[in-house]
C-alpha cells in the first residue's frame, strides 16, 4: 500500500511537471489552426498563452512572429523572431520569417542576411529563394533577384509566385516579352492571381496591345474592384484606344478610392485636356502638383493647357519649372521655345528650339512660313 501511494504521488508529480509543456503545445496547435483559417487575432491569443505557460518556447515565439507580421505589427514580429533565434540559433523558419519584416521596414541588408542564413541551413528552401529575390530587387540588385527566382523555379517549377516575381524583375530590366511570358505562366498556375493580371495588363499596354491590356486590367478589377492602380492603368489603355469617356470614368473611380493619388489627377487632366476641357485639365494638373510638386510631366502639361488658354506667361513659368527639375526634357525646351516665340522673344526661342533638337533630333523648329 505504501508503495502504491508513493507511486501514485510520483506519477502525479510527473504529470504536474509535464502539464504546462503539454498545455503550451496544445495552445500552439490551436494557434496554428486559427492562423491557417485566417483568424490572426485568435492565433495571437493562443501563441501568447503558450508563451505564458512556457516562456522559452521557440516555436511559439516564431509562430507569434508570423501572426504579428500578418497583422502588420512589424516591430512586434521582429522581436518575436529574434527571441526565437536567441533560444534556437539554427531555427531555419525564424531566419526566414525575420527576413520579411526587415525588408518591409526598409532594412534590405538585414533581410538579405537572414534569408541567406536560412538558405545556408536549408539550401532547397523555395520560399526563402523567392523572398531573397524580393529583398535583392528592393535593394536594386535585379540580376541577383532574377537568379534567386530562377533557382526557386528550378526547385519548384510550378511556383506561381516565383513566376510572377521573375516577371516583375524581367519587367524592371526592360525585357517586356520575358515578363509577359512569366505573368502568363503564373496565371496558368493560379488563374485568380490579381497582381499577375494587373502587371500583365500593364506590360501588354507597353507592347501596344491595348485590347489585351484592357482585358487583363478588367479581370484584375473583377477580382479586386478597389485597386487604384488597375483603374488608373485601365484608364490609360482606354485613352490609348481613344475612349476618353471611359478613361475619364476610370480615373474618377481611382480618385474616389484614393483622392490624393497624384497620378490619377495627372491622368485625368490629360484626358480632360484631350476632350477640350482646359479648365478641368488645369485644375487636375494643379492638384497633381500640389500632391507631387516635382512631377515634370505635370508641369509640362500644365504649361500646354495654360498656353492653349492664352496664358503664355503662366505656360512659360511651368516649362521653366519642368526644366529646372529635368534640364534634358526635350519637349519642355521645345514648348518653352513656342511660348517665347509667341511673346516675340525670337533669340531665346531659337536657343530653346536648338536645345530641344540636340536632345531629340525629331523636334525640328517650327517654320516661320505662315503657309
In short:
The protein is mainly α and 371 residues long.
Describe the structure.
- The structure is a single chain.
- With 371 residues, the chain is mainly α.
- It has a domain at 311-365: Serine Threonine Protein Phosphatase 5, Tetratricopeptide repeat, CATH 1.25.40.10.
- It is 79% helix and 0% strand.
Mean pLDDT level: 94
Count every helix, treating DSSP H or I runs of 4 or more residues as helices: 20
Please tell me what the overall shape is: elongated
Topology as a string of helices (H) and strands (E): HHHHHHHHHHHHHHHHHHHH
For this structure, the CATH topology of the domain at 311-365 is: Serine Threonine Protein Phosphatase 5, Tetratricopeptide repeat
SSE-based structural type: mainly alpha
Major beta-sheet overview: none
Map the helices and strands:
Blueprint: H1 2-36, H2 40-53, H3 58-70, H4 74-87, H5 92-104, H6 108-121, H7 126-138, H8 142-155, H9 160-172, H10 176-189, H11 194-206, H12 210-223, H13 228-240, H14 244-257, H15 262-274, H16 278-291, H17 296-308, H18 312-325, H19 330-342, H20 346-359
Helix pairs in contact: 1-2, 1-3, 2-3, 3-4, 3-5, 4-5, 5-6, 5-7, 6-7, 7-8, 7-9, 8-9, 9-10, 10-11, 11-12, 11-13, 12-13, 13-14, 13-15, 14-15, 15-16, 16-17, 17-18, 17-19, 18-19, 19-20
